[in-house]
């Protein structure tokens, strides 16, 4: 009898990836897999290279060297991301918040969500408006989000920073991600909304087998949501492990959690 193996989750594999700015190396990753667990935290002090690493994965900045590959899971082949532009990477299912430039003044909240859904399903945007049947399919999911999150006026524009942030997250969810990179998704959101965002992310990761990687300085989010944590400092991932182990680790306390850094 052949051995049963659990299907691999959607994951990215980063190998020998280096990025420098003005001659200074800010990210240097020898070998890193993101996505082996449903929800992973990526933490570390300011300037550790967390955002840069996410941008390297999306190829919104060019790597000095190294490669990034993606597998959608369940026996899917590995695809090299480092040769593709960001929109092609998103099309494959690797999606990051703050990635797509949003014209918050030109698109209403509802239109912005609809556009994300149509993009994910390969509909040409003008068809959504001309043929109501086309968007009926996405309407339910959008209505669900709008019920969950009280936008001031969903048929108007996102105004507050919180609404823009939330809209960005919902748009990413509508893009049919396989691996979702969230860069400080709850920063600046009121506590009640933050909890709903966390619940929604947990539900998506569990029910739809989406791999989620979260960068956050609000460590309550990390400790309560993550199945696994990567600790990054000075451009490299120094430690990886269960949240309680990372939380107590002397290196993490010294470089990040201790006095003068964020609170525990
Ligand atoms: N476009 C850029 N040009 C020059 N230096 C940059 C650029 N982007 C990032 N850096 C530098 O690279 C280093 C890593 O920055 P990065 O934004 O990735 O850190 P981070 O871990 O996301 O920090 P934070 O927690 O504050 O968001 C920092 O020293 C930063 O100043
Ligand atoms: Mg950052």
Description:
- The structure is a single chain.
- The protein is 39% helix and 23% strand.
- By secondary structure, the chain is an alpha/beta fold.
- The chain has a single domain (11-257), classed as P-loop containing nucleotide triphosphate hydrolases (Rossmann fold, 3-Layer(aba) Sandwich), CATH 3.40.50.
- The strands form two sheets. It has a six-stranded mixed beta sheet with strand order 6-7-8-3-9-10, sandwiched between helices. The protein has a four-stranded antiparallel beta sheet with strand order 2-1-4-5.
- Strand 7, helix 7 (191-207) and strand 8 form a beta-alpha-beta unit.
- Helix 3 (109-120) packs parallel to helix 6.
- The N and C termini lie far apart (49 Å).
- The mean pLDDT is 88.
- Magnesium ion (MG) binds next to helix 1.
Structural class: alpha/beta
What is the first-to-last residue Cα distance? 49 Å
Biggest sheet architecture: 6 strands, mixed
* Strand arrangement across the biggest beta sheet: 6-7-8-3-9-10
Look up the CATH topology: Rossmann fold
* Strand content bin: 15-25%
Number of domains: 1
The top-level CATH class is Alpha Beta
Count of individual beta strands: 10
